[in-house]
């Protein structure tokens, strides 16, 4: 065995452990055992803001639906977003999704759990469904960030997780890479629900970021065609309205 390969094999468990269990804050770099240090948590995780109960865009009054949802009600019934997709928290999403910093996923779940439990009058879903990735993107990335968040969230809320409740019927382009006018066509018919357990149930759909909401609306429509009576989106971050 070449020396270089032997050295790599000797070191990779430590490298993996460092990636999964970082010893510094992902925001400020301060040494510590927490993935986000307490000062950064207190500074950047703002108190719950007033949002549209349907799409989680900001609104001026508690319980008030935004104009967009009043004009065109989406297939989903509710959305809870823990934080705004804005600096510096947006960088955490990118670290999880594209740098494989999986230790962030339980922290996302912790923040999202707090947001769910703080939502007035919100009835917990009967089961959780992570937004599925297409086969090609799953192979490229090696993991589904929505599932990595959904696993600890399931335990924190005591809600059953159904990792394969929905699948992608086809690979689609990333919604962030297509124009707003193309997003509906890009995602149309992309999901298949293959588990009968949704019949008559309230399904919580878990994702890292909600942007236009088209992906979540398409998945909600598929879940309702399969018999779900209510679909709520549980997302870590919400982008600003377009």
Automatic annotation (TrEMBL):
<keyword id="KW-0732">Signal</keyword>
<dbReference type="InterPro" id="IPR000836">
    <property type="entry name" value="PRTase_dom"/>
</dbReference>
<dbReference type="InterPro" id="IPR051910">
    <property type="entry name" value="ComF/GntX_DNA_util-trans"/>
</dbReference>
<dbReference type="InterPro" id="IPR029057">
    <property type="entry name" value="PRTase-like"/>
</dbReference>
<comment type="similarity">
    <text>Belongs to the ComF/GntX family.</text>
</comment>
<protein>
    <submittedName>
        <fullName>ComF family protein</fullName>
    </submittedName>
</protein>
<feature type="signal peptide">
    <location>
        <begin position="1"/>
        <end position="30"/>
    </location>
</feature>
